[in-house]
Amino acid sequence: MPKVGMEPVRRKALLDAALRVIGDHGSLAVTMSDIARQAGVSPALAHHYFGSKEQLLIETIRSLLRQLRRDTVAALKAARTPRERLSAVIRVSFHADQFAPDTIAAWLAFYAEAQRSEETRRFLVIYAGRLRSNLLVDLKALLPTDAAERAAEGAAAMIDGLYIRQSLKSAPIGIAASIALTEDYLNALLSTPAP
Amino acid sequence: MPKVGMEPVRRKALLDAALRVIGDHGSLAVTMSDIARQAGVSPALAHHYFGSKEQLLIETIRSLLRQLRRDTVAALKAARTPRERLSAVIRVSFHADQFAPDTIAAWLAFYAEAQRSEETRRFLVIYAGRLRSNLLVDLKALLPTDAAERAAEGAAAMIDGLYIRQSLKSAPIGIAASIALTEDYLNALLSTPAP
DNA sequence: TTTTGTTGATTGATCAGTCAATCAAAAATA
DNA sequence: TATTTTTGATTGACTGATCAATCAACAAAA
């Protein structure tokens, strides 16, 4: 079987498999065997390439974050005005890929894990900071600084909250409605001070 | 040692211990031994009274929910106008007990668990429904029905979002600021349609 | 003596992680 | 070109640790 140059292929397959299995299972309490089986290799190979389960998990969240950033950068590039850019940030947050049940479950699992793993928390703090900062930079063009800061906190919280509520699967709010709610929030804040 | 009537004492001690250990550890992946040790009894006793780890965990979240409802009912009783009642609901959500790091970590762990455990999800759906409904009933007195419904969804999401962001412990938003953000949101929605 | 409370010891299952061995492609050599 | 050697890829089998769950036994109250 062995062909040279399999390493990147296997790494990617294992990362994808990990995300899939975690999302499916809704928890980080998945076995290396589960992940390896999903990737179509032996458990030993997963250890061979990642050293430990913890490392594989950390690489998994890192890849999740990387994907989110890619999407965000792309969406921002297409937007012109500050208001458009705000909408772009919101849209990316609720993009179908991000809003898929498996992905939501995986994020949730990582939030829980962050209570224990310093490194996992670091990554989530980075995510939270980016979201806040992406919103803040454009809000500052539309509101006084302190109002902009509060608006950024509020919008970020609402996005995360809509996200987490989605994970319960009852009363599915839906992508469009989630976007609309967040937009309404910003519209209300943007129109209130200056009628 | 054995005195009659220990059962309720032990049950409560074990439930408190479970909450404590889960919050401390930031995950449901705690052992019966950990919980039993925290409660000052043997692991075997925990099984004796709860039958299984899963059952103990379910009783734990049930007690968390019971406490929240008690607080909410008490807070609502003291409020007079719809607007006051809305503030009461918000205040309870961010009450010090609920906002304690251990409690937040425990809620988070249960959210993750809900992906797997049908019964855990049921409880969280009940929580989400109550929060939404508590907000909705008073919002309907202040807004048209459809606007009230959207406001209730949005406020509930923001509350949950502020909650989950708190779990990251970086950029601690704080109780007062969290309440203020949520109040601002409602104020903006309540003032926008009628300037 | 019966009942209630309690535990230590044990079991069976599950898993992360290790390791020696195997296999096939690629590179070196003849 | 034909061969041998080297190297990367891969796995099955195993180990050590952990843990939920069980159970037989014991202690104290009723």
Automatic annotation (TrEMBL), chains A, B:
Pathway: Amine and polyamine biosynthesis; betaine biosynthesis via choline pathway [regulation]. The keyword Oxidoreductase does not apply. It comes from the Bacteria. GO terms for molecular function: DNA-binding transcription factor activity; transcription cis-regulatory region binding. Residues 8-68 form the HTH tetR-type domain. InterPro entries: BetI_C, DNA-bd_HTH_TetR-type_CS, Homeodomain-like_sf, HTH-type_TetR-like_transc_reg, HTH_TetR, Tet_transcr_reg_TetR-rel_C_sf, Tscrpt_rep_BetI. It holds the Pfam family TetR_N. Keywords: DNA-binding, Repressor, Transcription, Transcription regulation. One of its GO terms (biological process) is glycine betaine biosynthetic process from choline. The keyword Transcription regulation applies. NCBIfam families: betaine_BetI (TIGR03384), PRK00767.1 (NF001978). Repressor involved in the biosynthesis of the osmoprotectant glycine betaine. It represses transcription of the choline transporter BetT and the genes of BetAB involved in the synthesis of glycine betaine. This is HTH-type transcriptional regulator BetI. It comes from Rhizobium lentis.
